[in-house]
């Protein structure tokens, strides 16, 4: 996203000379010739993770709220997880000091990130089960003119669809690449989060962090 988009989304009543922060209601002054410098600097200094919040608001078509910063580490964990799950970012890079310096997220070791990702799988899985309670899903071959239903109509997908072949080819190559550098358990975590990324939010990540820490504390007792 561009700075102008962040300002339009995360500030109320923004003008060429000032804007009211949607998170803390602070009025931030801005010189016309300076672009969005002061407005963006305020977000960087006082609302770490604002980029992730903005992306989530766009994805879910919702208003930005201070409650989205439910845990101070949520945005950083979300960012690292997104790199690993969606960009085949090697776990070893998480520990690399050069990579840490170049990336805006707060540094954390890969063991901590992996524990949080495992907990994230549990939270997403639980949330999905609760939302789908009582619902029944199946693949259904129906005609376009037939009655509407909750079932998934896959008739439109041709057996030799280039898009489908490309999708599975990408998954196969990605899985093959990752299997060389990690265990099956870690690979399963990444694949699950990759396929269910639309269910991952800052609130879900925050809950996963709390559960991960509770699990760690229990192991140490």
TrEMBL record:
Official protein name in the record: Uncharacterized protein
Species of provenance: Phytophthora cactorum
InterPro entries in UniProt: RNaseH-like_sf (IPR012337)
SUPFAM superfamilies per the UniProt record, alphabetical: Ribonuclease H-like
């Amino acid at each position: 996203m561009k700075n102008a988009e962040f300002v339009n989304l995360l500030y109320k009543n923004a003008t060429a000379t000032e804007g009211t922060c949607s998170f803390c209601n602070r009025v931030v002054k801005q010189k016309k010739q300076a672009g969005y410098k002061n407005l963006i600097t305020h977000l960087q200094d006082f609302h770490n993770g604002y980029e992730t919040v903005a992306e989530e608001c766009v994805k879910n078509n919702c208003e930005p709220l201070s409650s989205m910063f439910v845990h101070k580490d949520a945005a950083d964990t979300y960012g690292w997880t997104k790199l690993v799950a969606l960009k085949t970012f090697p776990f070893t890079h998480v520990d690399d000091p050069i990579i840490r310096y170049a990336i805006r997220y707060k540094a954390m070791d890969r063991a901590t990130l992996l524990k949080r990702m495992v907990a994230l799988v549990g939270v997403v899985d639980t949330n999905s089960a609760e939302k789908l309670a009582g619902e029944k899903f199946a693949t259904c071959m129906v005609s376009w003119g037939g009655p509407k239903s909750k079932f998934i109509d896959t008739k439109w997908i041709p057996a030799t669809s280039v898009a489908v072949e490309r999708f599975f080819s990408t998954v196969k190559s990605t899985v093959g690449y990752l299997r060389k550098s990690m265990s099956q358990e870690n690979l399963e975590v990444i694949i699950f989060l990759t396929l269910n990324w639309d269910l991952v939010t800052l609130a879900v990540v925050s809950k996963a962090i709390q559960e991960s820490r509770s699990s760690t504390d229990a192991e140490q007792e």
